[in-house]
Protein backbone atom coordinates (compact mmCIF):
# COMPACT_ATOMS: atom_id res chain seq x y z
CA UNK A 1 0.00 0.00 0.00
CA UNK A 2 1.18 3.50 -0.67
CA UNK A 3 -0.27 6.84 0.17
CA UNK A 4 0.83 10.37 0.90
CA UNK A 5 0.66 11.32 4.56
CA UNK A 6 -0.57 14.67 5.81
CA UNK A 7 2.73 16.39 4.98
CA UNK A 8 3.31 14.83 1.59
CA UNK A 9 5.53 11.94 2.70
CA UNK A 10 5.01 8.82 0.60
CA UNK A 11 4.24 5.96 2.96
CA UNK A 12 4.84 2.43 1.67
CA UNK A 13 3.93 -0.94 3.11
CA UNK A 14 5.78 -3.66 1.22
CA UNK A 15 6.04 -7.42 1.38
CA UNK A 16 9.29 -8.58 2.93
CA UNK A 17 10.28 -10.12 -0.41
CA UNK A 18 10.08 -6.69 -2.10
CA UNK A 19 11.89 -4.81 0.65
CA UNK A 20 15.32 -4.77 -0.98
CA UNK A 21 13.91 -3.41 -4.24
CA UNK A 22 11.95 -0.71 -2.40
CA UNK A 23 15.02 0.39 -0.46
CA UNK A 24 17.21 0.51 -3.57
CA UNK A 25 14.78 2.55 -5.63
CA UNK A 26 13.13 4.77 -3.03
CA UNK A 27 15.84 5.55 -0.49
CA UNK A 28 15.91 9.27 -1.28
CA UNK A 29 13.30 11.87 -0.53
CA UNK A 30 10.39 11.79 1.84
CA UNK A 31 9.55 8.09 1.85
CA UNK A 32 8.52 6.05 4.89
CA UNK A 33 8.81 2.30 4.34
CA UNK A 34 7.45 -0.51 6.51
CA UNK A 35 7.59 -4.22 5.72
CA UNK A 36 5.38 -7.20 6.51
CA UNK A 37 5.61 -10.82 5.51
CA UNK A 38 2.96 -12.48 3.33
CA UNK A 39 1.11 -9.47 1.92
CA UNK A 40 -1.35 -10.68 -0.70
CA UNK A 41 -2.12 -7.33 -2.26
CA UNK A 42 -1.43 -3.65 -2.39
CA UNK A 43 -2.85 -0.36 -3.40
CA UNK A 44 -2.58 3.38 -3.69
CA UNK A 45 -4.53 5.85 -1.58
CA UNK A 46 -5.02 9.51 -2.48
CA UNK A 47 -8.15 11.28 -3.63
CA UNK A 48 -9.22 7.83 -4.75
CA UNK A 49 -8.31 4.34 -3.63
CA UNK A 50 -6.96 1.52 -5.76
CA UNK A 51 -6.72 -1.85 -4.05
CA UNK A 52 -5.32 -5.02 -5.64
CA UNK A 53 -5.30 -8.47 -4.02
CA UNK A 54 -4.36 -11.95 -5.18
CA UNK A 55 -7.00 -14.65 -4.89
CA UNK A 56 -5.36 -17.89 -5.99
CA UNK A 57 -4.05 -17.26 -9.50
CA UNK A 58 -6.43 -14.34 -10.08
CA UNK A 59 -5.97 -10.66 -9.28
CA UNK A 60 -8.93 -8.85 -7.77
CA UNK A 61 -8.97 -5.06 -8.01
CA UNK A 62 -11.15 -2.27 -6.76
CA UNK A 63 -10.96 1.42 -7.60
CA UNK A 64 -13.18 4.08 -6.10
CA UNK A 65 -13.42 7.82 -5.54
CA UNK A 66 -16.20 7.46 -2.98
CA UNK A 67 -15.15 8.87 0.37
CA UNK A 68 -16.34 5.83 2.32
CA UNK A 69 -14.33 3.45 0.10
CA UNK A 70 -11.19 5.58 0.40
CA UNK A 71 -11.71 5.66 4.18
CA UNK A 72 -12.13 1.88 4.31
CA UNK A 73 -8.91 1.24 2.38
CA UNK A 74 -7.10 3.85 4.52
CA UNK A 75 -8.22 2.20 7.78
CA UNK A 76 -7.19 -1.25 6.49
CA UNK A 77 -3.81 0.13 5.39
CA UNK A 78 -3.21 1.68 8.83
CA UNK A 79 -4.17 -1.61 10.47
CA UNK A 80 -1.53 -3.43 8.42
CA UNK A 81 1.09 -0.70 8.94
CA UNK A 82 0.84 -0.48 12.73
CA UNK A 83 2.50 -3.85 13.34
CA UNK A 84 4.84 -3.75 10.34
CA UNK A 85 8.57 -3.41 10.74
CA UNK A 86 9.80 0.20 10.34
CA UNK A 87 12.55 0.11 7.72
CA UNK A 88 12.99 3.71 6.61
CA UNK A 89 11.55 6.98 7.88
CA UNK A 90 11.43 9.82 5.37
List the helices and strands and how they pair.
Elements: E1 2-4, E2 10-15, H1 19-25, E3 31-36, E4 41-45, E5 49-55, E6 58-64, H2 67-82, E7 85-88
Parallel strand pairs: 1-4, 2-3
Antiparallel strand pairs: 1-2, 3-7, 4-5, 5-6
Features:
Endonuclease, Chain A; alpha/beta; 7 strands; about 90 residues; about 25% helix
Provide structural commentary.
- It is a single chain.
- This protein has a seven-stranded mixed sheet with strand order 6-5-4-1-2-3-7, sandwiched between helices.
- It has helices at 19-25, 67-82; strands at residues 2-4, 10-15, 31-36, 41-45, 49-55, 58-64, 85-88.
- The model has no long low-confidence stretch (mean pLDDT 78).
- The protein has one domain (2-88): Endonuclease, Chain A, CATH 3.30.870.10.
- The protein is globular and about 30 Å long.
- It has two helices and seven strands.
- The chain is of the alpha/beta class and 90 residues long.
- The longest helix has 16 residues, at 67-82.
Considering DSSP H and I runs of 4 or more, what fraction of the residues is helical? 25-40%
The end-to-end distance, rounded to whole angstroms, is 16 Å
Oligomeric state of this protein: single chain
CATH architecture level-2 label: 2-Layer Sandwich
Strand order within the widest sheet? 6-5-4-1-2-3-7
* Cα gyration radius (Å): 13 Å
Instruction: Give unreliable regions as ranges.
Output: none
CATH level-four homologous superfamily name: Endonuclease Chain A
Amino acid sequence: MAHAGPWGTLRLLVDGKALEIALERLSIGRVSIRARERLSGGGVIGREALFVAREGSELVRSRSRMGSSVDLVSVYSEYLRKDAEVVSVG
